[in-house]
Design brief:
Chain lengths: 343, 530
């Protein structure tokens, strides 16, 4: 009980102390967007008959006719009331756009992270156990390959091989085959929603659609995870408690998993948290290549169009997710190593 | 037991699915539909395409053949909600007889009241239609009059050749006025906000689902009989899906998972055409021009000889091949026997231009730049796939006469802003005229301080002749004015028309009825599967 309450207190304190940072991000993005060259009103008034009047109309609609400080105050007020503005690219409120697209990005990122962890940890452990052997070299090779091939290249290659040539993968367009009917939206995560609806055929369609993009992203982040696992494993294998455990004659599997790996997981956890946040934002290219309706490709389109509201909304969302992920990692730390939660 | 049920289900479900697949058209595109009302500022081209399906207008364009390809015909109309129309002898009144059997999607009959409300909205509200319709002398609600429930009258201040054509573009759609009015508010009397996300039309298709930036699914309107032979649209469902990656669009259509696409990269289109499995209809966009432009008010491009020198330096053929793989209609290399334009009824026409470095060097020396000068050449990132190779060739060629060019690739919003502020000296752009008549091109792209006057041309004669041509009823006189305009355009060289790019429509070989449309989208009402 006391463990739980200290953890909750810690989490609460951590959250409160990250609020100034969030505010800073908010103001900074706002100002940054206005410094960028290009007038969004002119861009959006690019219809065949759009003249000065249309430009003024759009400028007014976007609130750009007011001085910047006033715009900022209005913007902060809007955010306070939960209004993130309206996207001109999609014509929808930004909040609604993000709400409908975030689950797509999260589902993809979670799956990719899971695949990456399931691959990277065994690889890292194997490399550490056979340091300097051919296994170590193979792992290093795989890591180098994963990092140096950009995601859009590996994505297009996977599409070419598995969709175009072999015809094994479904067409790489969105989260579920267009002719499959969608489940009622409960969580927004298709795999969960299909399960809740008991529609297993739909579930299979959604899972099949997820495989290629998730692997593309996983491939990209296997390297840092495997390298960290290897390094942490080496450190913990060489430490006193492992030597003691060994000398007590405990079975090698128990020594490796319970003593060495559990202690090595802390840095892996840290990196996994960081990797997750960066993946969420950095999967723009994967989302583009697979026509995945996620938040990253949405933000990129908005940025190219100088559409302020969605970009600001996206950055705010990312910052908030970063805070939440850090918080989660913090809490998990306490569970992995109880010493951490002692204040 | 459950296994059996599943097996049964799937065995009965399959033929049904196959059936719906045959009656469904899947269209993939790189861009997104962002509004259901085409009048909203910021509407995308895809939104225009959609409005043609969900709404009817009084009229739509007929079609004609151009070099063996079907294209829209500016001078020929077919009725949508209007059964017939007639002009008064002085050309100032157009009387429309409306169809009596037309119904909106909710079953309300379409009346002249609806037409009046919709056209009033198009010229009164803060909508895109306003700017467009004035090019056809339609500017005020007073011009529209309800005679009876099925007769409607439009009055013009002067006989205007483009009045009727303007009623067939995407903006003057006819709304269900009762429904729209019920959604209007005092701040929004024309229901702009509601119509942006809802339709109140009588068109061939009804929106089944609309996810901006992802998919739009349409279901056929069973009561619509305004097809070419007074019949229903052919496809029961139409799916428009946004696929940002061009290579993926090409893969989808090649594998038969998508039925039609019109925005592939030129290489992919050429490649698919060579493979021969699909139908590729490549239509030069006869209402558009890609050009190299100068700011005619900015030194050194305010000097005619400099503009001409550049025109004689461009490697036209190489640029055409590198940018478009030769897919399109060139606007260079013509032969004007007496230095006069061969025709005046149309614009653009091929210009008598070819690469002639000696002539270019002479002109540049005459302009006072024997050693050349330095400048920048700008283009949109959005057009990079065609503009980049073209710019590289232009740079290389201009270096031969001493002009040093720095290539500037600008984000689209920034380029738009700079062009709007008239701050780009030397650049490439493309223009499209929905109503490609000769005077429309000149009036909209070569006159006044507007943004579309890319060259910032300010020439008294061009202004005067273009305005005169607009209201010239005598076609012979119109062509004579056009001949002068075309000749003057070449003499002034405000910008260099290069080519009309092709619209490559790539579709399953079973798809029939494709027509190149003014708004460069597909009119799905024309399509059918053999």
């Amino acid at each position: 009980m006391s463990q739980l309450s200290t953890t909750a207190k810690r989490a609460g304190w951590r959250f409160a102390s990250s609020l100034p940072a969030l505010f800073g991000v908010l103001v900074f993005t706002f100002l940054l967007m206005r410094v960028l060259p290009g007038d969004p009103a002119v861009f959006f008034a690019s219809g065949p008959s759009a003249g000065k009047e249309e430009i003024e109309m759009i400028r007014k609609q976007m609130g750009l006719d007011k001085p910047v400080p006033e715009q900022l105050v209005r913007y902060l007020g809007d955010i306070g009331s939960g209004n993130l503005g309206r996207s001109l690219t999609t014509g929808q409120p930004v909040l609604a756009d993000l709400k409908s697209r975030l689950p797509a990005s999260l589902e993809l990122t979670f799956s990719a992270l899971l695949i990456a962890l399931l691959t990277a940890i065994p690889l890292g452990v194997a490399a550490a156990l056979r340091q300097g052997s051919w296994i170590d070299h193979v792992v290093r090779f795989i890591c180098a390959l994963g990092v140096c091939v950009p995601t859009f290249v590996s994505g297009l290659l996977l599409i070419y091989a598995f969709y175009y040539l072999l015809g094994m993968a479904p067409d790489p367009t969105g989260r579920v085959d267009i002719f499959t009917s969608q489940p009622p939206v409960v969580t927004g995560f298709l795999l969960i929603d299909f399960t809740l609806a008991g529609d297993w055929e739909g579930w299979r369609a959604a899972a099949a659609q997820l495989v290629l993009p998730a692997f593309t992203m996983a491939l990209f982040v296997v390297a840092p995870l495997a390298r960290i696992t290897r390094a942490a494993m080496l450190a913990s294998l060489g430490s006193d408690f492992v030597r003691t455990a060994r000398s007590l004659g405990l079975p090698p599997a128990k020594v490796i998993v319970t003593y060495a790996l559990r202690n090595a997981l802390l840095p892996v956890l840290t990196i996994a948290g960081i990797v997750f946040s960066t993946m969420l934002g950095a999967n723009v290219l994967v989302e583009k290549v697979f026509s995945w309706p996620g938040v990253a490709s949405y933000a990129l389109d908005a940025l190219l169009a100088s559409d302020y509201a969605p970009v600001q909304g996206f950055v705010l969302l990312m910052a908030s997710i970063f805070v939440v992920v850090n918080l989660t990692v913090d809490v998990l730390y306490g569970i992995a190593d109880p010493r951490v939660s002692v204040e | 037991m459950t296994c059996l049920a599943v097996a049964l289900l799937s065995s009965t479900a399959l033929p049904v699915l196959a059936q719906t697949r045959a009656e469904t058209l899947r269209h993939v595109t790189g861009a997104a539909i962002n509004t259901l009302d085409p009048n909203i500022p910021g509407s995308t081209r895809e939104a225009f395409g959609l409005s043609l399906l969900t709404y009817d207008r009084l009229l739509s364009f007929g079609k004609k053949q151009l070099d063996g390809k079907w294209v829209f015909d500016l001078d020929n109309f077919r009725g949508e909600l209007a059964e017939s129309y007639k002009f008064s002898p002085d050309g100032l009144k157009i009387t429309f007889a409306l169809r009596k059997d037309a119904k909106f999607h909710d079953g309300t009959p379409v009346t002249a009241e609806d037409v009046k409300w919709s056209l009033d909205r198009a010229v009164t509200a803060n909508v895109l239609g306003k700017g467009q319709l004035l090019t056809g002398s339609l500017t005020s609600a007073d011009q529209f009059k309800v005679i009876d429930a099925h007769t409607f009258e439009v009055t013009l201040p002067k006989p205007d050749k483009l009045a009727l054509a303007n009623l067939a573009v995407v903006y003057p759609v006819i709304f269900n006025s009762k429904l729209a009015k019920s959604k209007a508010t005092p701040e929004d009397p024309w229901a702009l906000a509601w119509l942006k996300e809802n339709t109140a039309g009588s068109g061939a298709y009804i929106i089944e689902s609309f996810k901006p930036g992802e998919t739009t699914i349409l279901r056929r309107n069973p009561d619509w009989n305004r097809g070419s032979a007074e019949k229903l649209a052919s496809f029961k469902r139409i799916i428009t899906q946004t696929i940002p990656e061009a290579a993926t669009r090409a893969n989808l259509v090649e594998k038969g998972d998508a039925d039609i696409v019109i925005d592939l990269q030129a290489t992919d289109a050429a490649d698919l055409e060579k493979k021969g499995k699909l139908k590729v209809i490549s239509t030069p966009q006869y209402n558009s021009i890609t050009f190299v432009s100068f700011n005619n008010q900015m030194a050194p491009f305010d000097k005619l000889d400099v503009r001409k020198a550049i025109a004689y330096t461009l490697p036209y053929d190489d640029m055409f091949k590198a940018a478009l793989f030769g897919r399109g209609a060139p606007l260079y290399g013509a032969n004007w026997a007496d230095g006069k334009a061969p025709t005046g009824a149309i614009f653009p026409i091929p210009q008598p231009l070819k690469t002639d470095l000696a002539e270019a060097k002479k002109l540049l020396t005459a302009a006072g730049f024997p050693d050349g000068f330095s400048t920048t050449f700008s283009f949109n990132v959005g057009q990079a796939s065609t503009a980049e190779p073209m710019a590289a060739l232009l740079k290389e060629s201009l270096a031969k006469i001493g002009i040093k060019v720095e290539i500037q690739k600008l984000p689209d919003a920034q380029m738009s802003t700079l062009i709007n502020e008239k701050k780009v000296p030397f650049f490439t752009e493309g223009i499209v005229a929905w109503l490609p008549s000769m005077d429309y091109f000149y009036r909209n792209f070569y006159i006044g301080p507007i943004r579309w006057n890319y060259a910032s041309l300010n020439d008294e004669k061009i202004t005067e002749w273009a305005q005169a041509a607009r209201f010239e009823p005598d076609m012979a006189k119109y062509a004579a004015l056009g001949k002068d305009l075309n000749t003057r355009h070449f003499e002034l060289m405000p910008q260099i028309p290069l080519w009309q790019p092709s619209q490559d429509a790539v579709m399953a070989s079973s798809i029939d009825g494709y027509v190149y449309q003014f708004h460069r989208q597909i009119d799905f009402r024309d399509l059918s599967r053999k």
